[in-house]
Fold:
Amino acid sequence: MNIQFYNTLSNSMEPFEPLNAPKVTMYSCGPTVYDYAHIGNFRSFLFADLLRRFLEAVGYEVRHVMNITDVGHMTEDQVADGGGEDKMASAARRLKESKKQGTDHATAIENPDDPFQVAEFYMDAFLEDARTLGLKVAFEESENIFRATDHIPAMQAMITKLLERGHAYQCVDGTVYYSVESFPSYGKLSGNTLDQIRSGAGGRVEAEDQASKRHPADFLLWKPDESHLMKWDSPWGTGYPGWHIECSAMASLVLGDVIDLHTGGEDLIFPHHECEIAQSCGVTGESHFARFWLHARFLMVEGEKMSKSKGNFFTVRDVLQGKATGRDVHPAVLRYELIKSHYRANMNFTKKGLSDSAAVVRKLREFTASMQQKSGGEAAPIDQTHPIWGEFLNALSDDLNISKAMGGIMTWLASSPTDASEALAVCQKLDTILGFSLEEPTQPLEEAEAGGEAEQAESLCKQIDEARQAKDYASADAARQKLIELGYEVSTTKEGTSCKKQLV
RNA sequence: GGCGCCGUGGCCAAGUGGCUAAGGCAGCGGAUUGCAAAUCCGCCAUCGCCGGUUCGAAUCCGGCCGGCGCCUCCA
Structure:
């Protein structure tokens, strides 16, 4: 299979071959855990997940690593004196407020002033969301999810090497900076040049913040600061590491000096990933840190940039609990909504898109269920040579063209496949990438609804049947209307009335 | 000002020089239904604009217009 991806490094499509096939090393920049993750974060994480699942489906052994940024970086990290507010401090402030009002399960945190507890809380929340949405790496917590605070020594070792090799310098106040002028390729990823960075940025580089640095683009490696909430001892004074160093340190620690794939949101291209390259290559002397850099475009909400002030800011929890739609959303629906458009185009998150996605998820789940029934659960053995599955993979091999891939599946569904065990096998294969839990079409829904509501629904169905038998259609319609309002989909057949929870 | 991405029907979106421009959702007409839902059948676009290359362009080139991102913490 010819796989090609758009590499930000070259701004062009490049054929993909791992350095040490069949192994693939992949690193994704993960979340900063001082708040709940929002759907935009997950658009980027799920794109990485899609990439990873695709590579596995075509036979590669993927080691996918993701970091958790739990160091309390400053809200204005770039500013030389470490200005702004500590992110952990601002999280603590928010948590205390919501704790007072009892509006949040933040009540679970004993002491919001303990930054480690705050980080722990939001990390758990992130992992929970990630598992709910089928982010594979989140199920590999111990092997592949790494916390920055657990790797301070590795970061310090890297900083020491950078100082030794002349890529870093220490100011009189002890702050350690990376010297971008010591690294000729700085700017290659983002297309910036040092001159442009110096003069550019619309004149927003403020002179006084830059005073101690040799070049305005020099970035922080270590900041001695006794007053910082999270601090560690170091040869350069007690303080905290710069934001960029954790990814360089952890990636090389577990994946080696040169990795195959590195992903993140488009906003990370500069400065974050540019700085990672400078640090890693500065230490290893290699020409590449990651051979392929893939970046996901931003997510918009109803045509606008998502922001708290516009009121269109949604966390994963918000959407699943119906804040965006007024009705609970099944995780598979949100997952599909976030992966269904090409990662390199801006995606527009809309209520309508969500219900479109629900229709697709539903269609596939019902088809799978019927094939399962017809085949008695016996799936035929198929591989990449299967026309449908092969075509699906082939579409994805072209820079993850999921629209084309799904187009093929929809056409296939419409053709009413006759070989049930073969069709079931295709569904199972698809599910390894789509992650819809196709083979448990109703289970998770009913479990979630266990208790009063499910019983109520059942009795309403019974009422409909009884009323219809008595030709009391007004009562039957009323009962059905009630079920619909409860979020159920009702169907009446010769066998009687049944209902199930709608996906959206 | 610098560096990039994008512009196909109401919405999402495939298509990268040549059959009647995939597919999904919505909509419309019909079958089915007590009425519905689901399902099935049918209908629904000349590709942002202008110019060029070519026998032939949504697809290549140039210009313009428009949207978006980064250049500052941000997926």
In short: Residues 79 and 209 of chain A are 6 Å apart (CA to CA).
